[in-house]
Amino acid sequence: MQEDVKDKIEEVVKEDVWGAIQDFFNFEIITFGEGENLVKITPWAILLVVLAFVMASFLLKWIRVLFTRKMDAQDKNKFISVFKFIKYITYIVVVFMVLSASGINVTPFLAASAALLVGLGLALQELFQDVIGGIFIILDKSLLVGDIVEVDGKVGRVFDIKLRTTRAITRDDKIIIIPNHKFISETIYNYTQNHRTTRESVNVGVAYGSDTRLVEKLLLKSVSEQRGVLKSPKPFVLFQDFGDSSLNFSVLFYINDSFVEPRIKSEIRFKIDTLFRENNITIPFPQRDVHIFNTKLETNKNDSDNLAED
Question: 43-68 and 73-101 are packed helices; what angle lies between their axes, rounded to 10 degrees?
């Protein structure tokens, strides 16, 4: 008797319960196409996709932790954007692999999306260049947060590096957004790539006859008293050339913050002007001598002299 009841329970479980579960997972939610191109979307396929997403997310997170475990917090934050991009690509591949493994013909999807992918590839060509540029920047550390760069004639301090763009603040507190492909396809000046110290200069011309050694002394004094100018390496003066209207000098000095370089140069120019005035050193302006020859008057005078002789 007990065996009959047990057999009936097993039969009910196998045929009714398990059969109902199988029917549910094999239920065709969406069906389109016909023949070889027939596509059926079932709960089983959806469940496989969800499970694949969860496994792929866990695997990518584990790889990211393993790859960035020895990096500092700043570099780890950069790689978050890279792994987000990889995650999206992985999800697309996983979807098609799971659908194909579950018996769904993905050929119609691939055929239908081929033209779309080509169009998107052409339209988003520059976007992909930016993404690749961002990956290269992060991997080879050719650009770091805090670097001072010059792009299209504008100088800015980098404060954020993302996968597609880099953001920098200019000297007048404006934000410039730089596409990352510029850093791999164009020449970019990085003032602080090797070190923070940069050499700057201020040019000035003095009148002919000025005491050149006194000029050198005053120029060195103007920078030695300026805040922000480094004592070592020492500033020095170059006698550049004998100009058309002046003797041309340059005072060269070192600073450790190129971002405030215009302000430092301005203060040095103020001091040079004050010191030159106190020591009677003249800064000349261009002068030209203009000679006017009146050929017509000379010709008329010669004709008059000839007539008088006749």
Answer: 150
The residue ranking higher by pLDDT, 197 or 289, is 197
Nearest CA-CA partner of 252 in 272, 233, 279: 233
Whole-prediction pTM value? Answer: 0.56
pLDDT tens, 236-286? 999 999 988 899 999 999 998 888 889 999 999 999 999 999 999 999 887
Same CATH topology for 140-190 and 198-278: the answer is no
The number of beta carbons lying within 10 Å of the beta carbon of residue 309 is: 6
* 60-69 confidence digits (pLDDT tens): 778 777 777 7
DSSP 83-152: HHHHHHHHHHHHHHHHHHHTT---HHHHHHHHHHHHHHHHHTHHHHHHHHHHHHHHHH-SS-TT-EEEET
Give the residue carrying structure tokens 């923070």.
196
Place of tokens 């239920």: 27
> What's residue 61's pLDDT?
78
- Cα–Cα distance, 229 to 254 (Å, whole number): 6
- Distance (Å, whole) CA 295 – CA 293: 6
**Arch. (CATH architecture) of 140-190:** Roll (2.30)
| Class of the domain covering 198-278 | alpha beta
Domain boundaries, the chain: 8-123, 140-190, 198-278
